[in-house]
From TrEMBL, chain A:
Gene3D superfamilies to which the protein is assigned, alphabetical: Aldehyde Dehydrogenase, Chain A, domain 1, Aldehyde Dehydrogenase, Chain A, domain 2
Catalytic residues of the enzyme: E259
Domain Aldehyde dehydrogenase: from-to ranges: 31-479
Family: Belongs to the aldehyde dehydrogenase family.
Protein name: Aldehyde dehydrogenase family protein
Organism: Flexivirga caeni
Record carries keyword Transferase: no
Transmembrane segments: none
Alphabetized UniProt keyword annotations: Oxidoreductase
A GO MF label: oxidoreductase activity, acting on the aldehyde or oxo group of donors, NAD or NADP as acceptor
TrEMBL record, chain B:
Enzyme Commission no: 4.1.2.4
InterPro entries named in the record: Aldolase_TIM, DeoC, DeoC/FbaB/LacD_aldolase
Reactions mediated catalytically: 2-deoxy-D-ribose 5-phosphate = D-glyceraldehyde 3-phosphate + acetaldehyde
Enzyme class (EC, first level): lyase
This protein's UniProt keywords: Lyase, Schiff base
Chain's gene name: deoC
Biological process annotations from GO: carbohydrate catabolic process; deoxyribonucleotide catabolic process
Protein name in UniProt: Deoxyribose-phosphate aldolase
UniProt pathway: Carbohydrate degradation; 2-deoxy-D-ribose 1-phosphate degradation; D-glyceraldehyde 3-phosphate and acetaldehyde from 2-deoxy-alpha-D-ribose 1-phosphate: step 2/2
Taxonomic classification: Bacteria, Bacillati, Actinomycetota, Actinomycetes, Micrococcales
GO CC terms of this entry: cytoplasm
UniProtKB/TrEMBL annotation, chain C:
Entries under PANTHER family matching the protein: ALDEHYDE DEHYDROGENASE-RELATED (PTHR11699)
Superkingdom of source: Bacteria
Keywords: Oxidoreductase
Domain Aldehyde dehydrogenase: 25-256
Pfam families assigned to the protein according to its UniProt record, in alphabetical order: Aldedh (PF00171)
Record has Oxidoreductase as a keyword: yes
SUPFAM superfamilies attached to this UniProt entry: ALDH-like
GO molecular function: oxidoreductase activity
Protein name: Aldehyde dehydrogenase family protein
Amino acid sequence: MTRKFEYAPAPESRSVVDIASSYGLFIGGEFVDPSGGKSFKTINPATEEQLADVAEADAADVDKAVRAARRAYERTWSRLSGAERGKYLFRIARLLQERAREFAVLETLDNGKPIKESRDVDIPTAAAHFFYHAGWADKLEYAGLGPSPRALGVVGQVIPWNFPLLMLAWKIAPALATGNTVVLKPAETTPLTALLFADVCQQADLPAGVVNIVTGAGATGQALVEHPDVDKIAFTGSTDVGKSIARTVAGTRKRLTLELGGKAANIIFDDAPVDQAVEGIVNGIFFNQGQVCCAGSRLLVQESVAEDVIHRLQRRLGTLRVGDPMDKNTDVGAINSAAQLARITALTAAGEAEGATRWSPPCELPEHGFWFPPTVFTGVAQTHRIAQEEIFGPVLSVLTFRTPDEAVAKANNTPYGLSAGIWSEKGSRILAMADRLRAGVVWANTFNRFDPTSPFGGYKESGYGREGGRHGLAAYLDTEGTH
Amino acid sequence: MSPSSATSRARELLGVGSLTNKALRTWLHGLPGVDQVGIEARAAALATRSIKTTSKEWAIDTAIGMIDLTTLEGADTPGKVRSLCAKAKLPDPTDLGTPQVAAVCVYGDMVHIARESLGDSGIHVAAVATAFPSGRASLAVKLADTKDAVRAGADEIDMVIDRGAFLAGDYRLVFDQIAAVKEACARTGDEPDAHLKVILETGELATYDNVRRASWLAMLAGADFIKTSTGKIQPAATMPVTLLMLEAVRDWRELTGELVGVKPAGGIRTSKDALRYLVMVSEVAGDDWLTPQRFRFGASSLLTDLLLQRQKLRTGVYSGADYVTID
Amino acid sequence: MSRLEVRKTYKLYIGGAFPRSESGRSYEVMSSGRAPKFLANAAQGSRKDIRDAVVAARSAVKGWSGATAMGRGQVLYRVGEILEGRREQFVAEVASSEGLTRPQAAKVVDAAIDRWVWYAGWPDKLAQVLGNLNPVAGPYFDISAPEPTGVVGILAPQESSLLGLVSVIAPAIVSGNTVVVVASEDRPLPAISLAEVLATSDVPGGVVNIVTGRTAEVAPWLAAHRDVNAIDLAGATAVPWGELEAAAADTVKRVVRPAGTGTDAVEPDWFATPDLSRTRAFLETKTVWHPKGQ
């Protein structure tokens, strides 16, 4: 008798969210039409269904938003006490919690990520960021950043599409808590939760102009970065764009923090708690379809256990459920865009061409939308492109090592330095490895954990500045003198 | 399998000439460690699976068929056992299509009552033995306890390991006792041997590393099933502990080709919990374990909730306690 | 008849040694003030000297950043002691380099020594002041601590040849960074004398490397060098610092801009009480997570 546990479809209800057919720009506390009258469409990447028409902000709109932010900074926000600012942030945190399901559904529709991730990770963590930073607003002098930290003024923020609302929270919460006003540009493929957040700002009675949302693509971001009256730029996205922003800002007095790409090594020693390590590998590279800057995209496994670990990993990947992101049992959802899918496809083709062995579990991909199966490359060498370039997709490259020194050397042998993982039951080895890895976040015997209290950010070409925790506040404050 | 054959097989598996405590220790402590936070997170993630409509129907019936309907009270009487057996055979008189449970689990002195009540229903009689629940008795007493239940017609013996010996590092003693009880489960002639479930009492082993080692030790000594708990100690069965034991039987199969069963017992009261366990069975050990031959729930009140949910699926309205017989 | 003084040949300081510029070039260094007079010929470093200095600095990172914080503090304090011993030499050199009277120069030198000693006390406090335990919402031990960013390029202040120099080198190396310093173009002599102090102290070779020469010529090479992690543009007052910052962007270097507003770059008052901002600028925050279980 062979039985099989088939899970019936368990779709999350879409009725909890109302998507308007078109959205304007959120400037000065209200939705306004873009001056150029242009718009772009945002689609559901799982179905290619069109979700809404979204205004495209040009330089004039950005200017309007910056002026609104400046006005709000000078007339309202900078005159409020920290305690009052904090209360607004507490309100926002609560509103996000109250409307969590609505945000989760919208995020999944616009982004393609599994509903269980938007429901259990993105939205609760976003609310937690506001809650955490709310408490800082009237305690900044205790942050260890000098006796009288001061807000910078107007902050321009550009965020990516992989965690749309969460990245918004990472940006807006600390900026407002420290007394700045904000012009934020969400990614062009995922603007909807940012626009719903505008609604939250209205419900919270946040003073007009404190938060402004300008939607658009690269040109909109560029206009924001170049705007002379912006005091600080915070960017999360690709290393290429980050460098270009740094060049644009060079020679001005604008402050800049960058959270860029990564190519994290996830290092498995022969004494690892192997079943948890396998979970950590899976979570490291298949969480959010691998579209995570800190993804554990390079598996470095000690040669003596490589065969066993790969066997266990492949067995585990056989249980991953790929498909409809709105199904509560889906583990791996859709790739965010056709462009991203093309990039993943091209890099994996290069992996095969360069001689690595490609493997995917059997899985049926939906006909419409942008899909890529969980993929593992074995026999990868350090020189292969799939070991060097950020793929930003559900693709794991497996390399082996023999000694701790070799693991460190391979892990650090990249221009990136965002994150790393270590799996071992030996405490002293973990501490020594953690010391030697050149990465801003080191997860030992765990992976892809995030918390508002925990600073996140990279070394080297993964960027500079930290988000979260006491350290994250420094990105939005004038703290000390100049030397 | 006689104790001596269990020992010789173990020597072969471990690659040692003599099955000493040291050899067992080296082997058991060479198993991969278990990270508490990681395994608990994995169990919690599996618990978020959403089982709806047709799969829920299937899973509820599958779960009912895996229940070891249990009464282990000092106050057990022949009447109580008989009525439990009646419910085992006919869980829901309003729906004769309801599956029967897998077994009725009782103390040794009640085996003959259960045997007689269950007749040729196909439902097994399981007996707890070996000075259950503490296991604090001599081996002679434990074997006598076992043989008594086997003689009375038990199809399955649920023994307890000597947790004291395990925690003291006397793995050989634990091994020997399991092997000896296994032998005591044997019947002569054509009659099938009683199946041996080995209760680890994971709540007393305290750490996941210990649970993994105890699971492997029990399988090495010949367990047909490994079982979490007596139900008399808290915590009893938990998702992470059962997950760990499912990993153990999965890995044991890869090593030896044998399929050992898993039985979480104690504390599983709701259909929602039962379905979560089945998800775990399917995704961790594999669907080969989704049968009463390889997975059981040791429970008393779980059946009631499964029946309520079953009625809800059948009728479309929520049911109530008055619509399910108490035993 | 008075005795003829024995003059010093001023060379570069790279990897603990004092080479001439590989280019073989040198340039005249004159005193400041109303009647400039010849002080010395300084080595005119080239891009290849910068390259060699970066190699030396990179190879010193492991040892210097791997030393105990207390050890770094002791080594740096020792430098303070030696500076004090050479006080008279520095007073004379600063006076002629910067066109100061002896009492003015003495004040500068004393401030520089005191500044160095201030920083010497920092290495074993930085992690305590700048690190913390993060109370994450889960069963994890989560700690953030500062680490040196690696190799820091420094354009030393053009005017303040010793106090300014000390004020940019010390904050970078206290935490374990190594540095490649382009000395003040017109006032390079105190920098080379400082190098002599470093060479005779316990600071390992390669931790501080000093190149004298034309800032405009070598600074772009330093700013663009891919093996440099950060750059301090304090001394980019007469060169287009925006271009250097843009070059640094190609490898996402950490940049400390020159003081001033807008595109203007000015030298700050180096006598002002220092704070940790320059030290912070060359630190990375590393956050380590580990589960807590049994």
